Amino acid sequence: MRVLVTGGAGFIGSHVTSTLATAGHDVRVLDCLHPAAHGDTPSTVDLGVPVTVGDLRDADTVGRAVSGVDAVVHHAAMVGMGVDLADLPEYVGCNDLGTAVLLAAMARVGVGRLVLASSMVVYGEGAYACPRHGATRPAARAVADLAAGRFEPRCPACAAPLTPHLVDEDARLDPRSVYAATKVAQEHLAAAWAHASGGSVVALRYHNVYGPGMPRDTPYAGVAAIFRSALERGTAPRVFEDGGQRRDFVHVSDVARANLAALHATEGPAGLRACNIASGRPRTVGEMATALSAVFGGPPPVVTGEFRAGDVRHIIASPARAAHHLGFTADVAFDTGIAEFATAPLRGAVTRR
Which residues are catalytic? Predict the structure, then answer.
C-alpha cells in the first residue's frame, strides 16, 4: 500500500514511518520540521523514504503529497501543553487548519483511508466513581484546591473522594487545554469528512507515549522527556503535585505497531472509530520518575507540590477496543521500556519561540 505519513519525521511519526516501511508499505513523508519539535536548526532528515519538507496548511504542497497514495497516517501536529496562550493560534493553525487542508485534498483526489493520531487529552479527566453516587465526572480542579495541596477530585454532588476507573472510548469528550481542544476538533473534522466522502478513519487516542527519539529540553514534550532531560543535565526530575497522578505509559514501538494495525483496519466500514492506545498497566508519575532516575543513575526525583492549571489528576485507559477491533495489545513491559529509554538518544534541544 502507498502511504503518506504527515509529521513522519517527528518523534512518534519517525517510528511509525520505519514500522510501515519495514512491513513492506511504500511510504512517503510530509513534515514541516516545526521548531517546537525539531529545534530552530533541524538536522537533515534521513528516514530511508522520500521526505517532502512542507507545511500542511499549504494546499498545493498537500495536494502533491496525497496524489497517488492509498491511505494517510496523520501525525503532523503541535503537541503538549505549550508555553502559554500565545501559542493558541499556532496550535489551531497547525492542528485544525492543517487537518482541514489535508482532508480537503484527500477528498479531491479520492483517498478514502485515514489513521489519525489523537490523544487521551480529549477526555479531560478520566473515569471516576463515587461510593454514593456511582459513576461521575468531576469538574476541573479549582486553583485554590491545588494551591492548598488538595489534588484529588471529589464528587460534585457530595464532595466524597472519588475512585479512578478505566476510561473507554465512549466517554464524553471534555478538553481542558488548547491542545486538547484541537485534538477534539481533529476528530470531529475527520468524522465529518468520513460522513461526506464515505471514507474510513481510525482515531488512535495515544496515552503517555515515551521512548527513543523524544525531544529534549522543550516545553512541548511529554513528562518522560522532561524528566529525562533533567537527568541529562545532572538535575533531579521535578515531579508536580504529590506524584500520585496516574497515567498509562506506552512505549513508542508499541504505538508504531498500533498504527500498522490501524492502517489495515481502515479497510472497514465508513465512519470514524476511536481506540485507546495504552499499555493497560498504569503507573503514577512519581513511580515513573523514580524508576527512570534509578536506571539512569541520577539524582532521585523531587516532589515539588507545584501544579499546572489544566492538568488532570488521573487518566487510565481501557485498551479493550484496540485489542478487539485492531488486534493490538502492547508488548513492551514498563521496566523494560524505562531501562531502554534511560540511555536511548534524544533529539537535540528545542528552543522556546
Answer: 179
